[in-house]
Amino acid sequence: PKNNTLMEMAKILNVNYIHFIGVTPGCAEDIMLTFLWLDEDDRSTIHLFQLVRNPGKCNASDDKSVRYYDNDDWPAHAPVGMWLEYGLVNDFMREWCLRKEQLKSGEISEDEYFEWKINWPATSSKVDYNGKDDKKCSYQWRRT
Fold first, then answer.
1. Residue 113 lies in a domain
2. Is 47 left (phi over 0), alpha (psi -120 to 50) or beta?
């Protein structure tokens, strides 16, 4: 079908049209949708956590290690971490981390979490560096 027909179908089904119209491979939206579907397939695949700034001097040495406390919450072998210098993806990851925390704490339901994912980026809101959510988005996904 033509793009405008696909967009109308998405509107009728109340889902984001991005799921019907292909995105450019490797673009920010493609990366994020891949992460979201991996999470939907198996919630234990991706673990997000917010890094906290160290009050010491930045770049004081060549040590780039991020340390963690070895306990039952971590895998037997040290996980691999990464950060991205990709503004839109960084913003998304910060918001996604907050949504997963809200789900775990019971602040949002499984249905709301799924609604946020399936309709992203229309459900996206600004999450600041302190994890505060402005709750402004173009698609209302939360039951308030």
1. yes
2. beta
- Asked whether the CA dihedral 5, 34, 27, 112 is positive or negative, the reply is positive
DSSP 4-30: HHHHHHHHHHTS-GGGTSPPPTTSHHH
Q: How many domains does the chain have?
A: 1
Q: Is 30 exposed, middle or buried (0-12, 13-18, 19+ CB in 10 A)?
A: middle
pTM, two decimal places: 0.69
Distances (CA, A) of 77 to 74, 82, 128: 8, 16, 32
End-to-end CA distance of the chain: give it in Å, rounded.
Answer: 36
User: What is the span of the domain harbouring residue 108?
Assistant: 24-49+83-134
Domain assignment of residue 74, yes or no: no
**Span 56-85, pLDDT tens digits:** 665 555 666 677 777 777 777 777 777 777
Cα 41 to Cα 1, 38, 115: the distances in Å are: 28, 5, 15
Q: What is the pLDDT of residue 110?
A: 94
Q: What length does the chain have?
A: 144
> What is the rounded CA–CA span in Å between residue 33 and residue 125?
16
